[in-house]
Structure formats: structure tokens, C-alpha cells
Amino acid sequence: MTTLIVFLSLIAFGAVLALLRIFRGPTLSDRVAALDIMNVIVTGVIVLFALIEENPLFLDIALVYAALSFLETVVVARYLEGRK
Amino acid sequence: MEIIGYTLMTIGSLFYLLGGLGVLRMPDVYNRLQAGTKATTLGSFSFILGVGFIHPEWLLKTIVIVAFIAITNPVGSSALARASLKSGVKPDPRTDMGEYLPKEGSEEE
């Protein structure tokens, strides 16, 4: 259990660094890029929760979250590309 | 089996941390995308497969998640870099982009 908490704190530190870039980023592209990185990190955290709770249902949630985050990135990329 | 799983999870969480650090520290959008996407893709490989090694009955689902991330993460990053180049985000002045730099005369306004 202690090792899982160490993993969780390492990943949370990485997510906080990405969140700082979301707050600071000078352009919209910076914010969306940092949000994309944070989505992948959150997918890993959901899989870690499956291990903590001993419940394989969280793996399905992680798969759906990964699909939705990819859709969000592509949609925002198309919006940025079409804007002028 | 558990030792392999925990070793993989350690490597994966360190790479997640390095991905967040790269997003914070790199100078412009393209470097941030490169550092963050590469580091978190390798981190997801190690971390999620590590969970699959600890519980071998979950291995199939974890392989599906890892395959999905390995396909979609570079595609999303590439689309985002292309969109930010087309929407006029200037790269860092130290970057040498060579032939891919948009021409001065042909830039549509």
C-alpha cells in the first residue's frame, strides 16, 4: 500500500506541473497541449485506482476516458486550424 | 511476477513526472508537445502494463488500453502541432525548422 501511495504522489506532482502550464501558457495551443498531457496522466491514475480498489471496472472507465480525451484533442485541433 | 510489475510501475510513474516537468520547462508549444507526448506514452506503456503484470487476469484489458493510447496519443499530438502552426503560433527563435517554416509571402491573412 505504501508503494502505491508513493506512485500516486509522483504522478500527482507531474499532473500539478502540467496544471501550472495550463494556468501560465501564453497561447491557447499551450493550454490545449498541457491538457492533452494531463488527460494521459489521469488515465494512468484511473488504472492505479483499479489496483487500489481491487475492482476491474475502473479499467473500462480508463478506456472510455482515453477515447474521449483523444476526441477532445482532435476537435480542439480542428477548431484551432479553422480559426482565422 | 509482482516484482516485474512494481518495477514497471516505478519506471512509468517517473516518466509521468518527467512528462509534466517537460511541459512546464520547454520554451514553446512544439517542444512542449514533443517532450510531454513522448514521455507520457512511454510512461503509460510501463505503468498500465505493470498493473496488468500484478493482476494477470486483467492483462488483456490493460493491453487494450495501452494499444489505444499508443495509437491515439501521437495522432493527437501531431494534429495539435499542425493546427498551432497553421493558426500562427511562432516557434522559439532558437528553432531551426528549415524547409517547414511558412514562407513570408505566402502567409494567408
UniProtKB/TrEMBL annotation, chain A:
Give the membrane topology, semicolon-separated if more than one.
Answer: Multi-pass membrane protein
Note the InterPro entries from the entry.
MrpF/PhaF-like (IPR007208)
Which parts of the chain span the membrane according to its record? Answer: 6-23, 32-52, 58-80
GO CC terms on record? plasma membrane
Q: Which keywords describe this protein according to UniProt?
A: Cell membrane, Membrane, Transmembrane, Transmembrane helix, Transport
Coiled-coil spans in chain: none
Subcellular location per the Swiss-Prot or TrEMBL entry: Cell membrane
In its UniProt record, a GO molecular function of this protein is:
sodium:proton antiporter activity
Q: Which family does it belong to?
A: Belongs to the CPA3 antiporters (TC 2.A.63) subunit F family.
PANTHER family (alphabetical): NA(+)/H(+) ANTIPORTER SUBUNIT F1, NA(+)_H(+) ANTIPORTER SUBUNIT F
**Any idea what this protein is called?**
Cation:proton antiporter
Q: What is the lineage of its organism?
A: Bacteria, Thermotogati, Thermotogota, Thermotogae, Kosmotogales
UniProtKB/TrEMBL annotation, chain B:
Q: Which Pfam families match?
A: PhaG_MnhG_YufB
User: Per UniProt, which keywords does this protein have?
Assistant: Membrane, Transmembrane, Transmembrane helix
UniProt-annotated stretches for the region Disordered: 86-109
InterPro entries found in the cross-reference section: PhaG_MnhG_YufB
* Stretches that traverse the bilayer: 6-24, 36-54, 60-81
Q: Does the keyword RNA-binding apply?
A: no
Q: Which GO terms describe its molecular function?
A: sodium:proton antiporter activity
Biased amino acid composition, Basic and acidic residues? 89-109
UniProt superkingdom: Bacteria
Name of the protein: Cation:proton antiporter
Species in which this protein is naturally found: Kosmotoga pacifica
